[in-house]
Amino acid sequence: MKQTLLASALLLASPSFAANWQTIHTEHFNVHFSSEHIDFAKSTAVELEIVRTKVLDQQNRALDKIADVVVFDPLNAANGFALPTSNNPVMALFTTPPQSDTVISNSSGWQQLLVLHEYIHLVHLAQPTRSEWQQKIRGVWDLYDLTYGDTPRWVAEGYATLIESKMTGRGRLFDNYSEAILREFAQQGALPTYGQLNSDEGFMAGSMAYLMGSRFLYWLEQNYSEQLVDNVWVRMRAVKSRDFDDAFSGVFGQNAAKLYRRFIAEYTYKAMQQEQTESPLNSKLWLKLDLYASNPALSGDGSKIAIVERDKKSNTKLIIYSTEDNTKAQQQFIKAQKQLLEDDAKDIPDTAPSVFKREQKQILNQINRAGIANPQWVGNNTLYFNAYSSEESGTYNKVSDIFSYNIDTGNVEQLTELAGIRRFSVTRDGETLYGERIRAGYSELVKVDLNTQTITPLFTKSLKTTYDYPTLSPDETELAYLSASLNENWQLYIQELGADTRQSVPMPNGYQYLSQPSFSQNGKSIYFVAGLNNATDIYNYHIKNNTLTRLTNGQEALAYPIEAEDGSLLYFSINADGPDVKTLTTKNRTAVTDFAVNSEAPLLMVNKHTLPPAKIYTDETVEQSDYAVLDQQATFALGTQYYSASTSLLSVGIKSSDLLKQLDLQAGYNIDLHDGALHGGFVQAKYNALNTKFKLALFDYNLDTSHQYQPSLNVDIDARGGFAAISHPLKFGQLQLIPELAYNYTDYKNGHKNWTRLSISQQWQHDRQAFAIGQSIYASIYDGRNHSRHWQGYDLATKVFGKAFNIPMFVSFEQKQRDDSDLALGGFSSNLINQQQSSEFVLAAELPYYSATAERYQGYGGGISFKEGMPWLYYKQHQLDSSVYAQSYGLKYQGDFSFGMGPAGVNDLTFNAGLSRVEGDSFEDEMRAWLSFYYSL
Fold this sequence. Notes:
The chain is of the alpha+beta class. Helices cover 18% and strands 42% of the residues. The chain is built from twelve helices and 51 strands. The strands form nine sheets. The protein has a 16-stranded antiparallel barrel with strand order 32-33-34-35-36-37-39-40-41-42-43-47-48-49-50-51. Strands 4-5-3-2-1-31 form a six-stranded mixed sheet, with helices on one face. It has a five-stranded antiparallel sheet with strand order 23-24-25-26-30. Helix 2 (38-59) crosses helix 3 (110-125) and helix 9 packs across helix 10. The longest helix is centred in the first third of the chain and has 22 residues, at 38-59.
């Protein structure tokens, strides 16, 4: 469960929620949405109540609380997630429907599948425990509530996937594409072990929790009973605390890992039996690939093939290979083996590979993590492709756009702006493309004039219909495309451009799964992949003759057929290590004579719990209101901070926020756990709904430096006051600017201090995966009054950061100056004292508060890490009034975690840890450490 939450947080990528949100109220749900998603949200509100009623009947359980549902589209991609807290359950539904060649494409409708899957998560995982004291804690403490039970990821996702299939008769359990891939894994002895079900390392590893988890649970229901599986969930909510393993073993009399091994054995046995009935496929390896690969595209002259690849580090590249045999590599191999035998005549030389890796002509790394997909050739030297651009306002974070790449110059140019174009096909002159556009849940087939940026819909858009794979014929007179309507299979059509003539391509009877159409070189026929009887095969349809033939017979999991100039067929053969490119002779064909009479999708399970046919609900009246930012949900907020140089704190408070984090509130008290060095209370507020951001803070603390772990200047400060800041973030591509105006007023024993600060922070970066460069600057000026004295000052900080060969590194410099006022070096950041609201402090975790004072501070530093997101090996030097006061070096880590929405307890977390050697002339050199975890707005 924890892994699932982290993955969802990374997926969400902190969307911005503007002020123009609305809420639909039903009996059991509050559906929140932005104005552009009103149609999807209204239909969703009806679907939610239908699903709840059917699930209650099927599960005999429901949620006691009203669930919050967020309808939006942060990634321009199909997804969703649930936050199963028993007190404030939340679902997030991404409106973009799945494409045809995904494992979630087999559904009666995206909205129905998504609502059912995420609601099952809540019903399964958000049930209250029968232990009264534990449930009371869950009711007031979000973090404890969210992680209660710690359900394995494969159990959470596998069960939701199982029910999604059982209640719709479709879904991933009954998907030909998924089954074809899993059968290939089984025949290679590569199905995941029990310990690998929750892993994301390896080809399709992240999908196995869904695919294998659901099949294992279904096997348990078939071989034991549905009731026994359900008893596991009942035991996990008992008065007696049990994790999944204890609950499972108590029901089945043996652990899940042992039964899973039996399930794998049976599944593999059936797959091997199937393999024995298959005739050999007349194909051979053409190009060996590594892990993930997709979207192959042959250049017009057939001399190059472009393929998008992604390695185990999630580095995405567009690689252009030569289609010629790599004779150079072959000669080098022969030479190496000859030298081997010359050195040792009795040695055994290496066996030559069946095909030598073809020469890589060019490589384009994804830029700024925008992705690369669907390359299309324009001529022989330019590729158009999909990548994400960022929308700086509203609710979209990423939008799919079209870019061009000149393989000779390396120049990359953006061709569309926030168009939402996914798959597309481009004319030879590169001026017009036909694509599938997706915005606000609506999938449209459109024509795009790249010169004028005019987007023209080809058909009337509807939430009932999804399009995919628009593909131009070689003579550009016809457009093939896939379309799926509610409760139907995908269907392939050929549209005559400039006319209303449309031809439906016949499909084999009983098919489920259809994708990746590709015209033959002469345009007279079209290839595609279709699924039948738990397998996928390549088919060819001759347009004029109206004949359908099958080129394979279930021997492999297949994808992306492309006809080469010599008439042979290149295709992806999917195996446990990822896809490879093979070549297939097209001479051996089997005529298809048994055709599907319509595109209606077969339901493989129908009973009294089956959901009604999918529908987009447009006529129902719903109760709608403006989003209520003052509808705050509160949680207990607990944090702790230990710093061996200064002191230790326990932070106890209450934190609240609305669902979309437009308004955050926090109040608490910091208790010193050492000797009373620092303690006090605080109140904080942050408002984010508008483009201009507001922050307020009140504080009341006592700092007595004589009670710290390490000696320092003796200072006893009683401070109470307030802080306010207003900022207006701006973003221009990779350039970010944040101007801010801040004010502080603080009362002390002997008087008061107030100051005004005007600041600007700037950051820019350019990321090419293995290599990256970036910089940031922060500059501020102060004007203040300290007792009866007027003072001025400034802060300046700059950093240069980047990566070289995937190794992160940075160098930094900062300078602070106060005229007629002192700066105090040392101490750590907390809700009482922090760099944002405390102008007199230069915080350094490895030093105690008030280690020394000066009017001018300079700091120099740098660091290196072996991997992004890991601790830094760092060095830092502190100078006061141009003299070196201290230096430190060691390991440190700082990470801020915020989910971007949902319960208050899963946002605004700050984590710091470090171990360093501190050296200086005015104190004894020693090792110092710190560990900190707390909430901060």
